[in-house]
Amino acid sequence: MPKVTVDGVELEVPQGATVLQACELAGKEIPRFCYHERLSIAGNCRMCLVEVAPGPPKPQASCALPATDGQVIKTDSPMVKAAREGVMEFLLINHPLDCPICDQGGECDLQDQSVAYGRGASRFHEEKRAVTEKYMGPLIKTTMTRCIQCTRCVRFSEEVAGVDEIGALYRGENMQITTYLEKAAKHELSANVIDLCPVGALTSGPYAFEARPWELKKTLSIDVSDALGSNIRLDSRGREVLRILPRINDDVNEEWLSDKGRYMVDGLTRRRLDKPWLRRDGKLVAATWDEAFAAVAKINPGSSVAVVAGDMVDCETMFAAKALAGALGSTQLEGRQTGLDYDCSSLAAVNFNSGFAGIEEADALLIVGSHVRWEAAVLNARLRKVAKKGGKVFLIGPEWETTFPATFLGTDLSVLGNLPKEAADTFAKAERPALIMGGAALGKGALDACLAFAAANRLVKDGWNGFNVLHMAAARMGGLMLGYAQKGGIADLVAAKPKMLISLGADEVDYTRFADSMIVYIGHHGDKGAHAADVILPAAAFSEKPGAYVNTEGRVQFADKAVFAPGDAREDWTILRAMADALGVTVGFDSFDQLRAAMIAAVPALGREGLAEYGALPKGKAGISGSIEAYPIKDFYLTNAIARASETMQRCSAELLHGETFAEAAE
Amino acid sequence: MADRHLEADTPELRARWGGFSFAPAWEAKAKTAIAKYPDGRQRSAVMALLDFAQRQVGEETGTQGWLPIPVMEYVAKYLDMPIIRVVEVASFYTMYNLVPVGKFHVQVCGTTPCMLRGSDDILAACKKRGMHKGHTTDDGMWTLTEVECMGNCSSAPMVQINDGNYEDLTVDRFDAVLDALAAGQTPKEGTQDPARHTVEPVGALSTLQAMVSENHDYRGEW
After folding, report:
1. Which of A180, A198, B84, B215 is the most exposed place for a label (fewest CB within 10 A)?
2. pLDDT averaged over chain A?
């Protein structure tokens, strides 16, 4: 533990810390552009200069200098001040003064730091350098003249995303950041370079010229585009959410967010259900709420009710629907829309037990039937860390382009009981072996075999649980905790032939199997579910209601409400509460607070933020045949109703996955 | 250098160079270069391989050679490394030509010692022959580039033409070299000063005179 002195204050810093980190520990702000906690050290912006003794009598780049015992660091000496002013002046030589038309304005590192550490005026009278625009795909808007060559984007795509596609060409003053031959950045985390860019060189394409940061109301929320529960911030103005940004949570998403979670935001204002609709003579016609509830009352299902929950609903909505069904005398609840029927008697068996942060510690990893890049893009960055640390990764399933060294063991599931030699040796030697099973494996009934694999390969030991199930729906774990699982899956609901099927934004269900049921769709988008519905009750999207979500590692997280639902749409729970009146039953809550309290009383784990406890892992039964022919997700950008309504996501799908070309709009 | 750019990725370029692969002689050199580095570090050989590829292209086109995009892609694949990393290297070092060059790539040093010794005159002589910086003459013979120090300051001014250095130039001597090259001859490389063998002093010694016949310790005289 080296002892250093920062501006006269002596403190101990951890072994291996840099001078910059030591200064931060001492509470000193060190300006920087190229340094980023989650990226390798580049040391090329020179903004973090400090005075260090012993050492050469000149300013030193603190980000790349190890802190050693007895160092005396000065961050406020005249030399440091002059050095910072000098570096800032050099950086601004070629940086255009176009802040008024730059989207980064107001949240720009260069702007802030030039105010704090710059000279305030330029002595540069020569011509500035200009750089031609580079195309980086539909999400990233570039203005490369603004680039200060910090190379954060280059390091991100190489180190975190694992897709080497951005590079710095040419040299010196002519250095330019670009993708190879200006092809679009093609990976699921590409838009994170926008957050990383300290200046306005890489800005958000779909959000271009929409708003200034200081106009936006910031609401803390949870991403519902996959089951990771990435922590996000909704930036809204008036009644519209304008953009989604990741929040830092080292346990969940670090500070990354998948492109889908970030850019499906424009889907929140398109194809919305903003008034009730009723099916009359086979056609949907607009109605009032009174007419809609009268229609619900007319169904008069008695106890012949079933509820199917969609992938993006919050726990409160599911609990309210459960309460309504319960009041009517039914327990037919299901959330696994596509017909999965794995055993849910122990939630530990269907949980991501290692945790996202924990999985990084694995030294041998078997992925069974999961296209992780598409099913959990942010988690894929963690798996890359496993491989970078020397962990061996094996996969069972059709091949996909991994971003880390990995070995595919074929598609045959029987490999689970009979690993090839290399994999078997790796697992035999592994200290912390782990397994991740995805939706494709669950669909093939491989849960028992995977549990048996866990027992055979000592996946669970003191302080380590390597058995993981990776879900794809934000509502899945919450739904399972609330009992949205029948023994036979959704087939049980079909067999029960309910008179009324309440669909909570369920868009992936095959509704032809419910031809005899009256389908009441409570959802927010005019998507597949609404097309099949007999009564449509417009509800709120995730951004328009508070709610609890449980991610695939069993982490309970709460989201806040950013804006109001459009038109006549209401928060889901109020609709279910009103339906109870229409159907003449009581559900026991009149306000959201009462609803949440009732939910927590029923399932206490949902009241505590953090990981829920699911008990010990059950034993499995070895022996499985069959093979994984395909993954459930066919199109990463269009997996849910909001994304399908989003023009940005449609364009990403067309351009990045289906190879269509789009002409650039003339400016 | 501001003019450096990648040759456009056109179907014609793909048709011409898409099938590029190392000829056996260059392949052997490439294997040797890769073998200098530990297993798994084969990409360290990227600079050598780019040079070999450029020289092979040179042999095929009768010039110093250059690096078309398909050739860089071939090198990237050969070394199992991302293509953007290869392009970064190729675009950084000015001795990799990113666009086609003429039969003779005239690289005039314009750094201070050469400039003081008259490199401006050399450039003017080039211009007189129809060469422009960064361009190839219409007959495909000459490409002119101004380069930074080539390390021949003691025999400045100098010009590097393809792989040969021509030093101690005056406009006349330079013209003679170019005329000889254009006529298909092989002019003598190195210094063009008849009074000089290599970079020894011209005329009588002016320094280190005590060292001519035996070693002499000057330190006591400092």
Report:
1. B215
2. 93
Kindly report the CATH number that applies to the domain delimited by A277-336+478-611. Answer: 3.40.50.740
- Read off the tokens for A346: 């122990």
Task: Say which residues have a Cβ less than 8 Å from residue A427's Cβ, sequence separation at least 6.
Answer: A364, A366, A419, A433, A457
Other CB atoms within 10 Å distance of the CB of residue B15: 10
Tokens 């080539």, located at residue: B150
Whether residue A667 has pLDDT greater than 70: no
Phi, psi (rounded to 5 degrees) for A646: -85, 125
The verdict on whether residue B126 carries a ligand-binding annotation is no
Residue A409: predicted pLDDT: 93
| Contacts A181 to B, Cβ<8 Å | 6, 9, 69
Q: How far is A133 from chain B (nearest CA, A)?
A: 14
Domain A3-93 has CATH 3.10.20.740: yes
Domain A101-205 falls under CATH 1.20.970.10: no
Partner-chain contact B1 A172, CB within 8 Å = yes
Would you say residue B204 has pLDDT above 90? no
Q: What is the pLDDT of residue A14?
A: 93
**Domains defined for chain B, CATH in brackets:** 11-92 (1.10.10), 104-191 (3.40.30.10)
3-class SS at B90? helix
- In 10 A of CB A635, how many CB atoms? 15
Q: Does B67 touch chain A (CB under 8 A)?
A: no
Confidence of residue A650 (pLDDT cuts 50, 70, 90): very high
Name the minimum distance, in Å, from the CA of B11 to any CA of chain A: 14
The pLDDT > 90 percentage for chain A reads: 85
Asked if the C-beta of A172 comes within 8 angstroms of chain B's C-beta atoms, the answer is yes
Confidence of residue A665 (pLDDT cuts 50, 70, 90): low
Q: Where are chain A's structural domains?
A: 3-93, 101-205, 277-336+478-611, 353-469
Chain A contact for B8 (CB, 8 A cutoff): no
Q: Is B149 annotated as a binding residue?
A: yes
Decide if A180 and B92 are in contact by the 8 Å CB cutoff: no
DSSP states of B32-59 = HHHHTS-TT-GGGGHHHHHHHHHHHHHH
Please tell me the distance from the alpha carbon of residue B139 to that of residue B161, in angstroms, as a whole number.
Answer: 17
- Please give the angle made by the CA atoms of A149, A63 and A174, to the nearest 5 degrees: 15
Please tell me the total number of residues recorded for chain A in this structure.
Answer: 667
- Interchain contact, B87 vs A169, CB within 8 Å: yes
Task: Work out the average pLDDT over A156-176.
Answer: 91
Q: What is the CATH number of domain A353-469?
A: 3.40.228.10
pLDDT in tens, A20-68: 999 999 999 999 999 999 999 999 999 999 999 888 999 999 999 999 9
- The 3-state DSSP class for residue A400 equals coil
pLDDT of A577 higher than 50 = yes
pTM for the whole structure:
0.90
